[in-house]
Write a structure and sequence with these properties.
Belongs to the four-carbon acid sugar kinase family. By secondary structure, the protein is of the alpha/beta class. The protein has 15 helices and 18 strands. The protein starts with a strand and ends in a 7-residue tail after the last helix. The mean pLDDT is about 95. Bound molecules: adenosine-5'-triphosphate and the ligand O=C(O)[C@@H](O)C(=O)CO. The site of adenosine-5'-triphosphate (ATP) has 24 residues, from helix 12, helix 13 and helix 14.
């Protein structure tokens, strides 16, 4: 294994896998820390954790265990993947995890760059933008777990880290890898080893990756991996391309617990196409009036692409959260979707599509597939994945995908090529 990656959530880890596969690496995503050695043919291994919003101490402990396993596989470089919207709280977990990894690896200067231009996330003057809005005006300021109210990533990181915070401005990034390296060294000498790097185009991320070639640790969104496969290729450590994707025939189904604007648009499109759908009322789940068994039986009896969804608009979400508390609602719905997924797979579904980071995490933990082989891209940030001989998956982050995402995912999972 050349590159060892630690992801702070499951869908975000598959987003990173997507970037690395497009760069020509064979990539496997491990759901949790494996207890056996990796297949030696894997070029990049991603240990997917669910550490984005747990206590910092827990996130650090799990990340260090993941690091130990990755180092035992011979990795030459470690990448810590977090969200392209820098999802964190004033306590963490980006700062504390990065600090612990930097200490363990003896890393000096460390790049921090969540930019993902293909999905509108760019960093300029140390500030994070989503499209043409600052992060703090993008909707992320109202996130239920990790509200992002400060778009200045230098201040965000300073609040959750004991290291000095530096900056690599866009003009330096545009000057190329040697200039970036010089700036990082200068920042480290001045006591600012954790450097927020500007990046507004893919080329900027490639230049940052090239500059980080000899660094033991690099951190960012999936975009920060854009330049890394070429580093290994230049050194003769990586050759060829991963084996072609083998699609999976058989029944498909979609489970959506994401309430993001993008997902609600995808649900609306699915409904408009006349595809079968079953809306799940959280009240009915909490009262035990709707069961996973009933939802799975309904889906298994449908032709086409059945969708089971609780996706709802913000007012409806708030109303049920006000009645029951957001933790209880989330917990019940996630358990509902995890059990429905298990029943669907047991009932013969071979292509499963899930929407929402937490929802997908619960489903994957429920299915316990161990390792997921990353396949081709369905949409920016979302790859097809194989989980063993009979099951293929697509795990969609809430904000990703075009309105026809569900149909596109079912087609790619079946091995069909779809127009980009
Ligand atoms: N109708 C609903 N009312 C209240 N909560 C809901 C409802 N439907 C889903 N939820 C809960 O809302 C949360 C949605 O989070 P999830 O991470 O799955 O989606 P997301 O936030 O859109 O995705 P991402 O984290 O990838 O951006 C889950 O905990 C889910 O159980
Ligand atoms: O970086 C992103 O935006 C995604 O991979 C993700 O982590 C969403 O939760």
């Amino acid at each position: 294994m050349l590159l060892g990656c630690i992801g702070d959530d499951f869908t975000g880890s598959s987003d990173l896998g997507n970037t690395l596969v497009k760069g020509g690496m064979r990539v496997v995503q491990y759901c949790g820390i494996p207890d056996a050695p990796a297949d030696p043919a894997v070029a990049a291994g991603i240990v997917a954790l669910k550490t984005r919003s747990v206590a910092p101490e827990e996130a650090v402990a799990q990340s260090l265990r993941a690091l130990d396993w990755l180092r035992a596989q011979g990795c030459r470089q470690i990448l810590f993947k977090y969200c392209s919207t820098f999802d964190s709280t004033p306590r963490g977990n980006i700062g504390p995890v990065a600090e612990a990894l930097a200490d363990a690896l003896g890393a000096g200067a460390v790049i921090f760059c969540p930019a993902f231009p293909a999905t509108g996330r760019t960093v300029y003057q140390g500030h994070l933008f989503v499209g043409d809005r600052l992060l703090s005006e993008s909707g992320m300021e109202a996130h239920p777990l990790t509200p992002m109210t400060d778009p200045d990533l230098r201040r965000c990181l300073a609040a959750q880290s004991r290291r000095g915070i530096g900056h690599v401005p866009a003009a330096t990034v545009w000057a190329g890898a040697p200039a970036i390296r010089a700036r990082l060294a200068e920042e480290a000498r001045a006591g600012r080893p954790f450097a927020i790097a500007d990046a507004i185009r893919d080329e900027d991320l490639v230049a940052l990756g090239m500059a980080a070639e000899d660094m033991p640790l690099i951190t960012g969104g999936s975009g920060i991996a854009l330049g890394l496969p070429a580093n290994f290729r230049r050194r003769g450590l990586l050759a060829g391309q991963p084996a072609g994707w083998r699609g999976q025939a058989g029944r498909a189904a979609v489970l959506s617990g994401s309430c993001s604007r993008a997902t609600r648009g995808q649900v609306a499109q699915h409904v408009a196409r006349g595809e079968p759908r079953l809306e799940i009322d959280p009240e009915a789940v909490i009262a035990g009036q709707v069961t996973p068994r009933a939802a799975a039986d309904w889906a298994l009896a449908q032709p086409g692409l059945p969708l089971v969804y609780s996706s709802a608009d913000p007012q409806a979400v708030r109303a049920v959260q006000d009645r029951h508390g957001s933790d209880l609602v989330a917990h019940r719905l996630e358990a509902f979707f995890a059990e429905t997924a298990r029943l669907l797979v047991a009932g013969g579904v071979t292509r499963l599509i899930t929407a929402g980071g937490e929802t997908s995490g619960a489903v994957v933990e429920g299915l316990a597939p161990g390792a997921l082989e990353i396949g081709p891209e369905i949409a920016p940030g979302v790859p097809a994945m194989r989980a063993g001989d009979r099951l293929v998956l697509a795990l969609k982050s809430g904000n990703f995908g075009a309105p026809d995402f569900f149909a596109a995912a079912a087609a790619v999972l079946a091995g069909e090529t779809v127009a980009a």
